[in-house]
Amino acid sequence: MNLVTKSVLICPPGGLNTLLRSLKCVGLQPVPAPTYRKFALPAVLPSDRPYLFATRMATEPWLDGVPAAVAVGRMPDGRVRAVWVGTAEPSGLHAAVGAEGCLLRRMYAELACVFHVATAVSAVGGGMGGMAVALAPDNSKTLTFSIFLRGDDPTMADGDGMRMPQTIRVTIDPKGKPTVEVVGGQGTSCTLATRQLVNALGVEDQQELKPEYFETTAEDHVTAAGG
Amino acid sequence: MSHTTTVQTLFKSPSAFKKACGILNLKHRVAETVDGRSVLFPVKLYAGHETAWGELHLPGWKYPVAFREDGKAAFDTYKGAWGDMSEYDKFCKEYSVQATIEAAESLGQVVMSVTADASTGNVVVELQA
After folding, report:
1. Do A168 and B126 touch (CB under 8 A)?
2. Residues A193, A185 contacting (CB under 8 angstroms)
3. Pairing assessment for the beta strands A51-56 and A67-74 based on DSSP bridges
4. Contact residues, A window 171-190, toward B, CB-based 8 Å cutoff
5. Most buried one in A160, A211, B2, B13, CB count within 10 A?
6. 3-state SS, residue B90
7. C-alpha span between B76 and B45 (Å, rounded)
8. Is the pTM of this model over 0.80?
């Protein structure tokens, strides 16, 4: 299943209403998002039709009235993906970082069609500038989509927003006790990356922070120098 | 790496439980689900009954292992006389592997490799986040 058709890619600029009309024309089903920061929807998204969540952010002071949209769809591998785009900056859609941001990052690598959706939605919005993304299945009935905004998540980077992918190594000892390690993580990004996994497996027994945990990011250095 | 987290496993996934039992060829029973809820059932141990979502029969064990709703396992081995704990450990190890893979996939992480280390007895699951 492709998330988007070529018709979407050529839909003209003109704001979200135009976007919504265009998407309806090509068979996408627009659904208003009840809230922005977190919302849930039934996990019974149809496999043959992507959903699009779109809304104006005019009443949201943190976006200063710019249009934005969330595209949600079930991918060919059966997983559900979401893309959130706004027009807050011209640097292009970029992935959030952190535990959930990896999902969007992987979309670029694995699923070109999602990139096309993001491109289309962003173009209609008058610019590009994804802030964040995320989704996590809570249980069989609900999918929770967490939308991170700049400033909400300390791991979220400026600029292109991309960071090196993290490797999580889970070592299970002969008695079945797992130890979760993050390779390539820095600061709180690595704890975010493992928190959901640990919660799914059981409860945290013990955590050991390595020296790398306390290393500052490049952005931290810039801020320090400027201040 | 910036941190390591040791996890106390809780048995929360009937699907991982079933996969582990299938791989190890263990006799088991899992609660039926009605309207999204597991219909728990009693498992008879030496000291009484445990209400469980899962029941496991390990080789050479006199009583089954009961998997409770709080994620903990209950069993009577009488200090090993009624069951060899190494059989239980084998199951726990396989369950943890299956639960890790299942959790990672549900979180959108990619399972890069699953490697058994014969020298340590560990299994290493590498995920790309």
Report:
1. yes
2. yes
3. antiparallel
4. 171-187, 190
5. B2
6. helix
7. 6
8. no
What CA–CA distances, in Å, run from A35 to A98, A139, A141, B100? 22, 20, 19, 32
What would the two tokens of residue A159 be? 């600029």
**Nearest-CA neighbor of B62 among B83, B90, B88, B85?**
B83
Both structure tokens of B67: 């998997």
Q: How far apart are CA A87 and CA A89, in angstroms?
A: 6
Contact flag A190-B2 (C-beta cutoff 8 Å)? yes
| Tens digits of pLDDT across chain B (129 residues) | 467 888 999 999 999 999 999 999 999 999 998 877 889 999 999 888 999 999 999 999 999 999 999 999 999 988 888 999 999 999 999 999 999 988 887 776 777 788 888 889 999 998 876
Cβ contacts (< 8 Å) between A166 and chain B: which residues?
A: 128-129
Distance of alpha carbon B49 from alpha carbon A164, whole angstroms = 51
CA distance to A28, A178, B14, B54, per residue, from B102 (Å): 30, 14, 11, 18
SS3 readout for A123-178? HHHCCCCCCCCCCEECCCCEEEEECCCCCCCCCCCCCCCCCCCCEEEEEECCCCCE
Chain A positions in Cβ-Cβ contact with residue B92 (cut-off 8 Å)? 175-177
Which residue blocks in chain B are alpha helix, DSSP H? 14-24, 85-106
Q: What is the token pair recorded at B68?
A: 């409770």
ipTM: 0.92
